Amino acid sequence: MGSLHDHQEDQPLLQDLNVKIQQTSMVFPSKPSERRSLFLSNIDRVLNFDVETVHFFAGQKNFPAEVVADRLKKALADALVAYDFFAGRLKINRETSRLEIDCNGAGVGFVVASCDYNLDDVGDLVYPNPAFAQLIHKNNDFLKPGDHPLCVVQLTSFKCGGFAIGFSTSHTTFDGLSFKTFLDNLAALAANKPSSVTPCHDRHLLAARSPPRVTFSHPELLKLGASLPDTDPHAGVFHASSENLDFKIFRLSSDDISSLKDKAKSCEGGSSTARISGFNVITAHVWRCKALSAGGDDPDRSSNILYAVDIRPRVNPPLPKSYAGNAVLTAYATAKVKELEEWPLGRLVEMVKEGAIRITDEYARSAVDWGEIYSGFPNGEVLVSSWWKLGFAEVDYPWGKPKYSCPVVNHRKDIILLFPPIEGEGVNVLVALPPKEMDKFQTLFWEVLKAAGVP
Fold first, then answer.
1. Which residues contact 155 (CB under 8 A, 6 or more apart)?
2. pLDDT of res. 398
3. Interior CA angle at 125 toward 124 and 127, to 5°?
4. Separation in Å, CA 381 to CA 224, 273, 332
5. CA pair distance 413, 138, nearest whole angstrom
6. DSSP class of 238
7. Which residues face 100 on adjacent strands?
8. What angle do CA 322, 325, 27 make, to 5 degrees?
């Protein structure tokens, strides 16, 4: 059976990487482009916060840090020709009061830094060490007050020759799939090869209808009131919790996932023949554990789980796979706590599956139109954010594939992350909860697997 991994029980975390900034600069597009304003869809607008990822690389004799820095800067400059919006800045259109990107060629930030430790000294790269935040440079006030690049890249070299590349990017620019495409193109350019994919920038493909038509109730969206104009281009909705939280990683092997699938198929309410995806069964499992560990004695309390669904193939006509903006919507499933406790796993898996099936072209258009009418954003008890199969660790740079790629984790108890292991099959489930809730979650998490007869 899989294992609970709590790094703090194994060895003390390296809390200070002692990172020293060597140089900060801007990278500009290698060729000039016409200045323009880029329309942002209602999906883009609500994702106005930064996403931070770190990509670790083993040392390569032919690619010392200074060579990587030069190749990376040149590749970025070339990438900013096709991705001209990435070198722009967020602004409010005075006529429409909407958030847009001013494609003004102002550039992305670039930081060269060093660390006094070997990469092996950092320890387990899987565990969400808060010190990894030192491998990221914030976008705010980068080189001068008031300047907020949409991307800052930090290259941090370790004593052993290994290094980390940290990206801080505005979520308004990319979703996970389009950022993976950007990284593939960046890696190709760093190898002096042409870009692998030409990005599609037409975000009007996900513009609201005129007039907007909301044809579904959208309980997955929190309505704050009538539509409000965008007033601050840097006012996001993503906030961390101040509670004391335990962080634990639950490691599921491919055998564990198969056992969960078998359990779901054998349950009344589940299909014995229909294909069950690993994502659906894991999401159903963590939903039950999260809801039952949350405390409170009200069995009639409603619990809803949210998870992202790629709508590129779901809208009509389908969006190109190269669509460079945000093309994900939040699917949901809702049940009462007593139902989550009593219903078989198979039924919960079906509910998660139905949540994704619900997102048809009309549902997606209705959700986009909802954002045109109301001020609000996705809201639920728990959001499952899957980095599991985005493939960031499969990007092939001239200096090799990453040893590991991971998000810099925020202090949030309402987000559960799924991401791949460093080696082999399976998945890591990262959970952050107050200590008492974590104890209950942990017990519940393994109960189903034990009941399935997994040793």
1. 65, 68, 69, 72, 110, 111, 112, 113, 163, 164, 165, 166
2. 97
3. 75
4. 17, 31, 10
5. 23
6. -
7. 39, 91
8. 95
| Same domain? 376 vs 228 | yes
**Domain count across the chain:** 2
**If you search the block for the tokens 């490691």, which residue do you land on?**
251
Q: Which of these, 247, 289, 255, lies nearest to 406 by C-alpha position?
A: 247
Could you report the per-residue pLDDT of 217-270, keeping only the tens digit for each?
999 998 766 555 666 665 544 445 567 888 999 999 999 999 999 999 886 555
pLDDT tens readout for residues 99-146 = 999 999 999 999 999 999 999 998 888 888 889 999 999 888 888 898
Q: What residues contact residue 162 under an 8 Å CB cut-off, 6+ apart?
A: 56, 57, 58, 59, 118, 119, 403
Residue 62 lies in a domain: yes
Q: How far apart are CA 6 and CA 213, in angstroms?
A: 48
My answer on whether 313 and 165 are in the same domain is no
Tokens of 163: 């290094």
Which of 175, 202, 229 terminates a domain? The answer is: 202
* Total-model pTM: 0.92
- Answer yes or no: is 232 within a domain: yes
Beta carbons within 10 angstroms of residue 32's beta carbon: 10
User: Where in the sequence is the domain holding 306, given as residue range(s)?
Assistant: 221-451
Q: With respect to residue 125, please indicate whether it lies within any of the assigned structural domains.
A: yes
Closest CA to 157 of 16, 15, 17: 17
